[in-house]
Each structure stands twice: as C-alpha cells, then as structure tokens.
Specification:
4 helices; six-stranded antiparallel beta sheet; 144 residues; single chain; 30% helix; alpha+beta
Length: 144
Amino acid sequence: MSTQLSPRWSRLVKTEEIETPKYFIDCYVCPVDFDELREHHIDEPPVLYAFAVFDRNNKYLLSYALEMRKAVRIKEDETEEEYIGYFLETYCEHQRFSCKNFKEIQPDFESVRTMVIQFIVEYDAVEKMIEYDQERAKESEEKS
C-alpha cells in the first residue's frame, strides 16, 4: 500500500496482521476522529480502514479500503440529494472496483474486517479481482 498516493493513505496506522491459508493481510485504521475527517478532509476522500493483501512470498497483490466520501442519491421525487457515504473499494494494479456501499451507515472496523476476510477466504476474491483487473487493462490497451 503506497503512502505516496495522498494523505488519506499516509495517516493510516497498522493494527494487526492476519494469516490465511493463501495470504497475509495487513490491517490499518485511521486514528483521526471520523467527525474531524468528515468536517476537514471529506474532499480527499479519507480512508477509514484499509487491508493490504500479500501472497505467501510477501508480494503485494491488492488492497481493500473503506472510504468516506460525498455521494448523491435520487430521492422518490426524482431530485438529487447529497450525503456522506461509506464505500468499500478494491484497489488493484490498474484500477479500483467498488465492493460494498454502506450508504450513510458508518461500519465499525470489526464488521469491515470480517467482510474483507470473508471475500478473501470464502469467495476467493483476490484471484478473481486480479484476473478481472488484468482483463480490463488488456481491453483498455487494445482500444488504444
């Protein structure tokens, strides 16, 4: 996980390492109060929790990150309404993919951690996401 991307990544603090049969996962949490992030850093958008996934040879593969960001929803009367939402994203080599939209409900670290581990262990999401990322990159190259 690169801290050179932006301050939203550099403020994260590593809290634990998890070992699964196929991967190592480094878990990170932003120590800054979420209200302060919402008030002063929402335009970044800030990362609240992150999970960097490595293979058994300790090679970085991808990251999951829970972001807090502005979003727009369409109300029943067809008007738009802005809100602050929480989105779980997967960051691969070439692009990022949305995994889960928590809407306005700020999930706690444990529930996001459990979901990420479930994606990785039960659904074998890492290999699938890397494969999908490579396919999309190849398609983009062919279109260029």
